[in-house]
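Hey all, sorry for the wall of text incoming. These are the three entities for the joint prediction.
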Amino acid sequence: MALRSRGLTLGQRRAMWAYIFLLVPLTFFITIRFAPTLFAMSVSLFRWDILSPNKPWLGLKNYEALFADPVFWKSLSNTLMYVALSVPAQLVIGLFFALLLQAAAHWRGFFRALYFVPFVTSTVAISWVWRWIYQPAFGPLNKLLALLGLPEQRFLASPDQALASIVVTLVWQGLGFYVIIFLAGLEAIPADFYEAAKIDGARTWDLFRHITLPLLNPTIVFLTVIGTINGIQVFTQVLNMSFQGMGGPLDSTKSLVLFIYQEGFKSFKMGYAAAGTVILFALILVITIIQLRVTTRRVEY
Amino acid sequence: MPSQTFARRAPLRLSSVLIYLMLIAGGLVMVIPFVWMIATSLKPAKEVFLGYFFPLAPTLENYALVLNKVPFARWYLNSLVVATCTTLSVAFFDSLTGFVLAKYEFPGKNVIFVFILSTLMVPTEMLVIPWFILSNNLNWVDSYWGIMFPGVITAFGTFLMKQFMEGVPSELLDAARMDGVSEFGLFWRIALPLVKPALAALCIFTFLGNWNAFLWPVIITEKMDMRTVPVGLSFFSGEAGSSWELIMAGASMATVPVLIVFLFFQRQIIKGIALTGLKG
Amino acid sequence: MKRVLFVWVAALVLVALMSACAAPTPEPTKPAAPAPTQPPAAAPTTAAAPVEIEYWQYFYESKAKLVDELIVEFQKQNPNIKVIHTTFPYEQYNEKVAASVPAGRGPDVINLYYGWLPKYIDSGYLAPLPEKDFPVAAIEKDFVPMVQIAKVDGKYYALPTAVRNLAIFYNKDLWTKAGLDPAKPPKTFDELAEAAKKLTKVEGSKMTVAGWRVDLSNQDHNLYREILVRAYGGVPQSEDHKKILWNATPAGYEAWQFLVDLTVKHKVSDPTIGQDGPTAWLAQQAAVMVSGSFYLGTAKSKATFNWGVFPMPAGPKAQANFGSFWTHGITTKAAKDPAKLAASVKFLQFLTSAEVMKKWTPAIGELPARVEVLKDPTFANDPLLAPFLQTLPVSYASYFVDETADRKALMDAYDAVILKNADPKKSLDEAVQKVQKLFDDYWATKK
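and here's what came out:
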């Protein structure tokens, strides 16, 4: 497919190709994601109980009610806690195990599969087992604490400990994802760099600091941003693990998406839920943009 | 943490033993719920609440029940078709989009990138209703395409591929251009093979995500025969609790394709020195 | 290699697209076990083509199976009507209906939890049952009183096949071990609390068996609202369903105190026991559980110990029970089409007929909604059904505006007391405030 190069500079020609390639994906995103999102968000300006065709205009009343709702604020603060606790933990522990897996010379496939197993385990099985682990009366964790002479805890039944308990499960569950992406990132680092550095007399810690970490930057950026975006939207695990499945006890584990889901689909207050979604979206957008600015570094080859 | 990244023929030092010990300890923790899942699938109904980890009188009757009482095989097929097609589509489109975002300069690039990324910021639960209205109008209810369409191109994959495409040396692409390679060929023949590990990871997670998808398939399918495995398994839960032994049997059977996909693709991830491409 | 791969990808995407347009037409719904009889060779094509109506139900294996059989029978009696039976998972039933409404899609006859009726009726989703086919006077005479909660503005919008109420499931083995006689269960709540004290086992500082594991997320919120409040002499709501009266009289506070004392004073319950009430009961970590006749099937298949059911105890002032039911309504969508309306009416009459009820109860375990069928001795003599039947005449259904939020208000109030040492009276007042606001908002939007 030759293109007339008259009148178009090299850069312009390449830009045109970029647009051509982007045609299908952008059309898809606009029609399947953007338009429905606008619809979903516009609902926040009405009172809509899903079932009725009547959707009286409310303007910003839903938002007023939202900001006056203590459960909304609790859900918001819970969500920020989830992210602040789980994402760094997953980054560090994930990188740690990825490095271990790289270093293992034998049975690598086997170990990789082991760390992937939580993904093929039914979420129901996961929540069941973790709830059993946390069970105050007969669970192994309390038994272990007793053995070590520490006082037994109430974990999921306590409004003060439930969130942290769920964070542990979250980290456990998401670890495989971080490990695998880190592995891919580590694999992309050419061995020559390490060889050259070693010849120059670099020690292992220097190798890590000056080669591995910087070259992993795109991977780290990806995982941080995606991890945060997903973390802010935590839902299934809270639903499965929280006391009585409702974000309890006393809303101590309720995440923003769980709040939105319950208001929309269980209490049928779709307009109200949509207002929550708009706030959620704005929050994620701002955080993501900040993260992208702060963490991305151009990599020199 | 010292990086013994490429010490493939390391002699067995103490630190190696330590490495394996830590891997095994970590691995055990990863595996417990999986073992429980299989163990419960082998328990007769009355044993489920007895509180033992392993079955006292293991039986295969749950598997037989699941296969006979409900159209499990059909659900399996549906899940396979949907997950496979979606993964293929994602692998192609997301890499292409990521490539363009990484390696081309054009006005509006950053805006487009953030726009695409922003589609991840709304929980799908809220999009379910507009999607359903759309599907109903276009007659997509109870069809494979209806189940698949929200996921055939993803921002997640685009972002991932963009990050890894940035690692493809631009000089390589320029050199290829001068050799007369087409723009598409740059993507297909040069860049894509260089990001195999990321592509493999993307395929694994896309397949997995689609295999386990629940809310949208529940809404879009009404006929029993068009349902996917996770939706089907939810039928064993009801107002009076759930039949865990049956759910676990179904879930155990459902792990097989994902494990296969993983084992196949994870080789790609470790395919080793990928960037020896700079020949001449 | 690349070319081959590309072609392969394109082909697969094409296949997917094609399979979209030609959505495979599977056999008409045959969920669960293979139906015992094949539907008779469709409609003996004599007169007009059969009218098709769609019936939606939440999936419950025995219900789905029975309804399939009933549909076969119905279609035999009415050869010009075809019923398409679709079921959805219980947890997502509401979501499914919610999504289909804006899409203009949905069933002609729908099975709903009675607690959702106010919302569904208000939004115009359900059509009132035609007076000539379902005379109001006949309904009020023939059906159990709790059905009347479905009457709005003097019209009925839905009718059930069966109803349920609550009773106490108990573990006879634990009962004997504690020195109690399983053949002589408690008749009042105070007696039950006393028994629970004997049944509770504590090892050191840990409770290993709860006498009565209170679980407000399950049925115990209904226990408070309809049963305990009345048992102590109060009423939960005003007649017009506009005011919440839990704390209007000392009765409500006393009832609440009773429930709270179980955990705080008598120490027969602890939220750390089991994941929830039913799980704890099945695992023999709780001796007693409040649940409905819908649980009989699960208990039969999962309990590994000797168990039984005894009737809801009485309180100091009255005996009451909580009733609930899944009910069938006709949608406004169907009502717009005279042929479909007629077919739906026939189907509804069939579903709520005495013959169907007689089949329903033994298969499903729910109680018949017609008074005459209730009197049938086969049911009265069934040791597992009798405890439920006994209190059916005093079973009340609660008027819910938002069942989830209503339940949560009580759950949170209880948790506040047992987890944060809140004052029981204050926590009940807060719960009333929350629920009253729900009702106020609801009534304000009604013209």
